[in-house]
Amino acid sequence: MKRNPFSRRVLLSTFFLLLSIFISDVGRAQWPPCPGCPTSVPPTTIGWTSGSYIVAIDLGCGTPCNVQVCYCYRATSSFAFDYTITQIAWPASCCPSSTLQQVIDNVWIDLLNRNPAGFPCPACPSTVDYYREVNALCWSTDVIFNQDLSNYMNVAKPCSSSDAWCLTKMNVCCDPVTGAKTFTWIESIIRGYCNNNCNQISCPQ
After folding, report:
1. How far apart are CA 70 and CA 52, in angstroms?
2. DSSP symbol at 115
3. How many whole angstroms separate alpha carbon 75 and alpha carbon 73?
4. What is d(CA 59, CA 75) in angstroms, rounded to the nearest whole number?
5. 66-87 pLDDT, tens per residue?
6. CA-CA distance, 51 to 49, in Å (whole number)?
7. 87 by DSSP, 3-state: which?
């Protein structure tokens, strides 16, 4: 008995659709869910939008690691723009010698240069626009077992028990030819303090 060609095509289409959904679910399950955005950083009347991406970057040991970066962003005026990191996750076997400060600093460099929110970057030497690095001062670190990848993963995120921030303002401009960003530090303001259960990091200068 001959099988209807149309039925064969329908079965194949259904199979590949289910396979793509399965692969997509596995891919999502490899990384922990991102936390919510902060609510206590002024101006508190302006909300945040969350985002995340996976990237291979050097966390301070000279070897690229696959890193999940969870972040939030917002525009506080027509020329002022905020970024904050809400969580960083990476395989525990990658860069085990790197300090938490090195990890956070290298992720900040990637986030600001990547500029996933697409904030304006005027041609240099303009210094009209500025970005603000809303960096949590107090961080917790955990090691979780990733069942999908059968390995252990480091997860670093701001401590929920400490409302402390380093607010770093910097001018930004882009090379009109290469597009490379130049950041010029303006000021860093420390707000709050850490409790004994959190790891305090330094403000960038």
Report:
1. 4
2. -
3. 7
4. 28
5. 999 999 999 999 999 999 999 9
6. 7
7. strand
Amino acid identity of 152?
Y
Using alpha carbons, list the distances in angstroms from residue 169 to 104, 133, 155. Answer: 17, 6, 27
Backbone region of residue 115 per phi and psi (left: phi > 0; alpha: psi in -120 to 50; beta: other values): left
Instruction: Give the dihedral of Cα atoms 9, 13, 16, 17; nearest 10 deg.
Output: -170
**Do 113 and 55 form a contact (C-beta atoms < 8 A)?**
no
Residues 6+ apart with CB under 8 A from 46: 74, 75, 76
Alpha-carbon distance of 165 to 170, in angstroms, equals: 16
Tens of pLDDT, residue by residue over 139-189, are 999 998 876 555 789 999 999 767 899 999 999 999 999 999 999 999 999
